[in-house]
Design goal:
Length: 362
């Protein structure tokens, strides 16, 4: 392990930057930048879902939309996570060596240990709970998610310092008897009667824990141009895949008519950066798109562009990969341009509709 790392204090980050900047750091380390520890605090609430997680089973989209909490999909796997300014997060971008833990529980335990040690500095006993969580007694207080790409570990961890447990459960749709999640806590509960450690104090404790436990020396650094570019590209991808549905019956729920002659009608909506796409989907036998109508408000795509999207999907087999291939081929062939919508908007809108169809039948 390199003994000298770059240290970045990223301050407060938006939801998209909290996901995109670590991607840029991983790309930078893979290209030869020093191993890096970066610390940040979310500027506003958001929810991130795992790479392969069905969003409607993991998040209460109605609550999140009504409370303007964006929902974004990570490139890492794992459960849905709620984040806000009451948490401290850190990212490790580290080129793995042959003798180091490369996957599984050992990796999470190894790279969460500095967070445990920092809590001990404040006389708060926190323990590791396999495979990627931190507990205070029987209460969950933090955790991590990770991936390995091009030989670089991208490890992001968080600790709840002053988070509302009721808000977390509401955003993730967790009821009192829901077995999905254990009871939650924050550091603030351990500091009744006096102030919780502020971000600077905790940052300093975390750096000390890394220096002592990992035998690392830190040098203050900056994001390099290539890392900023990689983060910018990742940010565009995360933005295009964000789930920000309107909070009304038409937008947040799929309403199905009674099936007649093998045909069924579904409605859904996607809102993105001021543009709303409305979808009416007529399915045949539950397997094929018999007909569909898409409208936009405002209509960023020209009418003939929307018509061609509709035409290419009419008769399409009803599964996300087939829909995706057709839409992407259409955009590539016709070079459709729009400042408000892109191929991903149609893919997410129709893919989410398919997910909710399946949920409605179960």
């Amino acid at each position: 392990m390199s003994s000298t790392w770059r240290f970045l204090d990223l301050g407060r980050l938006t939801a998209l930057d909290a996901l995109a900047i670590p991607e840029g750091l991983a790309a930078g380390v893979a290209a030869g930048e020093p191993d890096t520890l970066a610390i940040h605090v979310p500027s506003k609430p958001f929810v991130s879902v795992g790479r392969d997680q069905p969003v409607r089973q993991a998040v209460d989209l109605d609550y999140c939309t009504a409370n303007k909490i964006p929902v974004v999909r990570r490139t890492t796997s794992g459960d849905a996570l709620y984040a806000d300014a009451g948490q401290v997060g850190y990212t490790v971008a580290h080129r793995l060596g042959g003798a180091e833990p490369g996957d599984g529980t050992a990796l999470f335990e190894s790279w969460l240990q500095p967070l445990i040690d920092a809590c001990h500095d404040f006389e708060v006993e926190v323990r590791f709970q396999p495979h990627n969580h931190l507990y205070r007694g029987r209460y969950e207080i933090g955790g991590a998610h990770a991936l390995i790409r091009d030989g670089v570990l991208l490890f992001t961890a968080y600790l709840s310092v002053n988070v509302s447990e009721s808000t977390v459960k509401a955003a993730l749709g967790i009821g009192d008897a829901d077995p999905r999640h254990p009871p939650l806590t924050s550091l603030r509960h351990e500091y009744e009667g006096h102030a919780t450690p502020d971000t600077v104090e905790f940052r300093n404790a975390l750096v000390r824990a890394f220096r002592k436990g990992k035998e690392i020396t830190f040098e203050e650094g900056d994001l390099m141009t290539a890392e900023l570019f990689a983060a910018g590209e990742a940010r565009k991808r995360f933005a295009s895949e964000a789930w920000t549905f309107a909070a009304d019956d038409l937008a947040a729920k799929v309403a199905a008519t009674v099936e007649a002659n093998g045909l069924r009608c579904w409605h859904n909506q996607r809102r993105n950066e001021g543009c709303t796409l409305d979808l009416t989907l007529l399915t045949e036998g539950g397997h094929t798109i018999h007909d569909l109508a898409i409208t936009g408000t405002p209509l960023f795509l020209q009418e003939d562009g929307l018509t061609q999207v509709v035409n290419v999907l009419r008769g399409c087999y009803l599964n996300p990969p087939t829909v995706g291939e057709r839409v992407l081929n259409l955009y590539d062939t016709l070079h459709l341009q729009s400042p408000g919508t892109n191929a991903a908007d149609f893919l997410i809108l129709i893919g989410d509709t398919i997910d909710k169809m399946a949920a409605g039948r179960s």
